[in-house]
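Inputs:
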Amino acid sequence: MAGFSAAVKPTPILKDELDIVIPTIRNLDFLEMWRPFFEGYHLIIVQDGDPSKTIKVPEGFDYELYNRNDINRILGPKASCISFKDSACRCFGFMVSKKKYIYTIDDDCFVAKDPTGAQINALEQHIKNLLSPSTPHFFNTLYDPYREGADFVRGYPFSLREGVATAVSHGLWMNIPDYDAPTQLVKPLERNTRYVDAVMTIPKGTLFPMCGMNLAFNRELVGPALYFGLMGDGQPIGRYDDMWAGWCVKVICDHMGWGIKTGLPYIWHSKASNPFVNLKKEYKGIFWQEEIIPFFQSVKISKDATSVQKCYIELSKEVKEKLGKVDPYFDKLADAMVTWIEAWDELNPSSAEKTAANGTAKAK
Amino acid sequence: MAGFSAAVKPTPILKDELDIVIPTIRNLDFLEMWRPFFEGYHLIIVQDGDPSKTIKVPEGFDYELYNRNDINRILGPKASCISFKDSACRCFGFMVSKKKYIYTIDDDCFVAKDPTGAQINALEQHIKNLLSPSTPHFFNTLYDPYREGADFVRGYPFSLREGVATAVSHGLWMNIPDYDAPTQLVKPLERNTRYVDAVMTIPKGTLFPMCGMNLAFNRELVGPALYFGLMGDGQPIGRYDDMWAGWCVKVICDHMGWGIKTGLPYIWHSKASNPFVNLKKEYKGIFWQEEIIPFFQSVKISKDATSVQKCYIELSKEVKEKLGKVDPYFDKLADAMVTWIEAWDELNPSSAEKTAANGTAKAK
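Outputs:
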């Protein structure tokens, strides 16, 4: 075997069960660096902005590419739920995928190195995270108990040690941290240099700021909850697409009894976006999140909501009722949430039943 | 300054505001290794077991030592709430201290090294943890936002960025992990070699297994909640002393609006305790914790409980009512909880009012 293995490339894990979704407005030269890790996988590229522009993809990658014309053609009037001129458009890629798992990454993210100097295979770590259980019901002080060399510590109830299905794996970023515009403005030179060698489950009942830069999830389990909202062109807000998806998916995972992990893997985030532009996109969000967070902290999903689609529709009604008062934008967003689910079910006809049957959902 | 500083030892931080509490049954040779870090501080040694035995303390340490005779003399009949032949006796040291902060450490814990090979000043890191705020209301994906080089990430509500007072700092262990007897039996050779460079707040509403090996807290804020229960001699259970204290203090901190941090610092835990002996001590706890955890997850403290003492007395009533059914032991424990508070207030007459006034308690 030893003489043999050097000549034959190992088959990438879950090669036929995972799509890599990349939203972009430019040539995908960044893929060169990812070649050793992504080459065996199928890519779904969602081209944002001017559809007449040609996006160059390096040789040797297996991909499909959708621009705005494709989105409009495929979804018809329902295309209104897919944002334009904002990376929120990535969720269109989630919808057209037919795979069980999704990894999504931004085109300004490169391969990071661990403290030994080795290149980090981010995708492999995400897959490990997704394939091992989560522990949202009790905190383990030695972090992910399923990692090699770790376990549940003394005092951890034995009845909870099986864990629950992991729905989302949220990876982090070396170099440019994911800061908001005010923090970017105040700390223009701050770089993340701390490599924290941990994966952990975000406890049930706790919200977190989900970043879409380096994110994987079980599409079969929670795909319909990963809607990135209405952002960018024609909308009063930007840069809250992933946050919105994160708050929704966390509340739904808590309801369905699934887990969300955060921590490893790191990618190298190369480019700080312009804080002045970001401030313009974010500033309404900075006010609104003060109302959105308490909303998601207290929102209740009924026992009848036994599928992600049902949870999401309930959530859209609550958004309309409770957040519609904050700004008319949320009325529009609530309608788009419904459109998203309709479009999802149209493109994924068996998904509604699948979701209900899958993952031994334990509704509260 | 450069030529000067080499000759003069720096004053240890909080030297006059912190006591180090050590429960022991043997000579404290382990302090030699801690000399550079502990020498300026006052030690409270709680001698467990045979009071006629002499415990040797290395030269140069400033300490007071209490054996069982001292405990009986000082507390009279209330001494019944202090465990014997179990490290739970350490909480007597918390009670007789007059300082604002406590650090407690086991005598089989040595100085650990960080990945660069440098000795870790565990106490200094605990003090950093206690003096910086906690963030129990929302999860920060880059861990403690108050650490150098870190901050709150995009999507973190600005209204929550002041944080809340930190009541407890829970440190971890390299080498021998804090496993229960079944895990020790199954994985006799497992050692913790993963240094996770993180400090984080345990979210509100989430319980955790608190280990007493390497623990610091703000005694002025939560001292009366750090009761280590009835364990060891004459009791049906052992090795749940710190767990009990951890569940109580977490529920009380959640109620009062204070935070608990876990992660750094690491100590080097040298000695695996005997798993067969441990199993004997633990086995009732292994059953009981399946009832205790749901109890603590659902217990409610009333708005009227505006001091830690009041919270603790309420909790003792709930323990009697709800856990008394599980085993008569919990009736006894509930009574001991009341005795503990009476003894605490006797030795700390101004503490009841202090606790109420302190730390801008925000009762739910």
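Remarks. Chain B has one domain: 18-356. Chain B has a mean pLDDT of 93.
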